[in-house]
Specification:
The structure holds two protein chains of two kinds. By secondary structure, chain A is α/β, with parallel strands linked by helices. Chain A has a single domain (6-260), classed as P-loop containing nucleotide triphosphate hydrolases (Rossmann fold, 3-Layer(aba) Sandwich). Helix content of chain A is 41%, strand content 22%. In chain A, β4 (60-65) and β5 (68-69) form a beta hairpin. Chain B is mainly alpha-helical. Chain B is built from twelve helices and no strands. Chain B has helices spanning 2-19, 26-43, 59-75, 78-89, 91-96, 103-130, 138-167, 170-175, 180-185, 198-206, 208-221, 227-255. Chain B starts with a helix and ends with a helix. The chains are: A alpha/beta, B mainly alpha. Chain A binds chain B through residues 53-55, 57, 75-76, 78-79, 81, 83, 85, 87-94, 98, 102-103, 105-108, 134, 150, and chain B through 3, 6-7, 10-11, 14, 17-18, 21, 85-86, 89-100, 256.
């Protein structure tokens, strides 16, 4: 494996009150890799990804991103990573174009580069025609796509995605998958958390399955299927995390037409 | 350092745009002070003839500074509301993982408050001058009035930002609006202290807003020789210093 672009060693997070969300997680991600971080709701995926971008302070452990540590080089790391969070936080009083321009400026891009990026990203996420509308008028799918565009404004080396297709219809999901494949093919490292097995199988070169704050399986989909004598990744998931889904997953799958079609 | 100022500038522009988005949101904070000024100056004009009221001052001129003051008072809570909206919808998280100087998030909000204060103050001032109110301290007095209004509004806006950062609850921050009323009316806003009942006068003495109002009033009705001007600046400055310190501490805690 080449020098990892993300290196995590014995990462732990205990919240005030004693809840151990992450209980000693270690993994590495190679440059240009599409890495999936799977697990049922409450497994610790979002806490882990939030620690990687410094939104949650870790209790202990080591995180190295592109050779840099958050303690000493947080701003340099922010310049190199993009993050599309589970909650699509947009400025409701701004238009999509204004938000992209503002983010370009806050990432300190030269003005001509900002305009190029704005045009390119609006085209990429197919929002050119509504770029001058306030973001509060966007549908859920448009908001997700726009959020992805926002996270790409500074052409990050690493893209963190936390459940980027949750709540999307199959068409919007396919659209986002295609964008992600293109970005990865262009050399971007992508770290994706999801609890949709199809998503991981379709996109990721390597996955780690997390449960109850620990990584319980890691490897390529083929390796894991062989190793666990399973039919597919979903089978591996069920074997490694227990055979019952959490209550929240049952609800999510029940309302998600894509998920329902495979149940 | 260069990026510090550019971050501050761009975040200020973003916040300033929020002032008029939507445009209708500007109306309440302008309507309330203008409405009370017009109603009170007409209905209570005879109050100026009560013994103990300042000589040669009409009631309209006496309460004119309150219209100016309350225009910025009512709008300065918006910074906290906008901040809590950013926090609750997740946009705040996006800002804090950008390669910016985090302090500029708060400075951008304070700049918006200052611009809003000038904007609202100018509209109310034009109206006051249209009905015959004069600024006795002249052009420099006018500048001093706006400086005092900006200083106070930035300090007061910190109250809502502190609530936003500490509670992260939009409803609670919005309900903070009501505390403007005791702070505004338990002062000498409607009558000079010597005409206020004892308890009321005592509360007004300990209410810092009284001194800022008196400072604005002194600049409208008299000139720079009036000590109330300096007391107003001193209290507004102290309020700003204390409140900004608590805001920054709350901000540091929120982004930890």
């Amino acid at each position: 494996m080449p020098e990892p672009i993300i290196s995590v060693k014995n990462l732990k997070k205990t919240y005030p009150g004693g809840t151990e969300a992450v209980r000693g997680v270690s993994f590495e991600v190679a440059p240009g890799e599409f890495f999936g971080f799977l697990g049922p709701n409450g497994a610790g995926k979002t806490t882990t990804i939030n620690m990687l971008v410094n939104l949650v302070k870790r209790t202990s452990g080591e995180i190295i991103i592109d050779g840099l540590t958050l303690e000493k080089n947080a701003r340099e790391i922010y310049q190199r990573v993009g993050f599309a969070m589970q909650e699509v936080g947009l400025d409701e009083t701004a238009t999509a174009r204004e938000m992209l321009q503002l983010h370009g400026r806050l990432y300190h891009l030269p003005p001509e580069r900002i305009e190029q990026q704005v045009a390119k990203l609006l085209k990429l996420v197919e929002l050119e025609k509504v770029a001058d509308r306030y973001t509060h008028t966007y549908s859920g799918g448009m908001r997700r796509r726009f959020d992805l565009a926002l996270s790409l404004i500074h052409e990050p080396k690493i893209l963190f995605l936390d459940e980027p297709t949750q709540g999307l219809d199959p068409h919007a999901r396919q659209l986002i998958w295609n964008h992600l494949r293109q970005l990865n093919a262009a050399g971007m490292t992508i770290f994706l958390t999801t609890h949709f097995m199809e998503e991981a199988e379709a996109l990721c070169q390597r996955v780690a399955i997390m449960d109850k704050g620990l990584i319980v399986a890691e490897g390529t989909v083929e390796e894991l299927v062989t190793q666990h004598q399973a039919k597919n990744l979903e089978d591996v998931f069920l074997k490694t995390t227990g055979s019952t889904l959490g209550e929240e997953d049952v609800i999510a799958n029940a309302v998600d037409p894509y998920a329902r079609s495979r149940m | 350092m260069t990026t510090f100022f550019s971050d501050w500038y761009y975040l200020s522009i973003r916040s300033i745009k929020q002032i008029w988005r939507p445009l209708l949101a500007l109306i309440p904070s302008l309507f309330i002070p203008i409405f009370f000024f017009l109603v009170n100056s007409a209905s209570l004009s005879s109050f100026a003839r009560v013994p103990g009221f300042p000589a040669n001052v009409s009631y309209r001129d006496f309460i004119a500074p309150i219209a100016l003051f309350s225009a910025v008072f009512f709008s300065s809570g918006n910074a906290g509301i906008e901040l809590v909206q950013d926090i609750s919808n997740g946009y705040f998280k996006k800002l804090i993982i950008m390669p910016i100087h985090r302090l500029t998030i708060i400075l951008g909000k304070l700049t918006e408050v200052a611009v809003h204060a000038v904007f609202q103050g100018m509209i109310v001032l034009v109206l006051l001058m249209a009905v015959g109110v004069r600024i006795h301290s002249g052009f420099f007095g006018l500048l001093a009035i706006f400086a005092l209004l900006i200083l106070f509004s930035m300090g007061w806006s910190c109250v809502s930002m502190i609530f936003a950062l500490r509670t992260q609850n939009a409803r609670l921050v919005q309900s903070m609006f009501v505390i403007v009323f005791p702070f505004l009316y338990l002062t000498t806003s409607q009558a000079p202290k010597n005409l206020l009942p004892g308890t009321f006068a005592a509360i007004a003495t300990y209410n810092p807003v009284t001194y800022v109002i008196e400072g604005v009033r002194a600049l409208v009705l008299t000139d720079f020789s009036n000590p109330s001007v300096y007391k107003g600046f001193l209290i507004a400055g102290a309020m700003f210093f204390v409140m900004i310190s608590i805001t920054l501490a709350s901000f540091q805690k929120a982004v930890k």
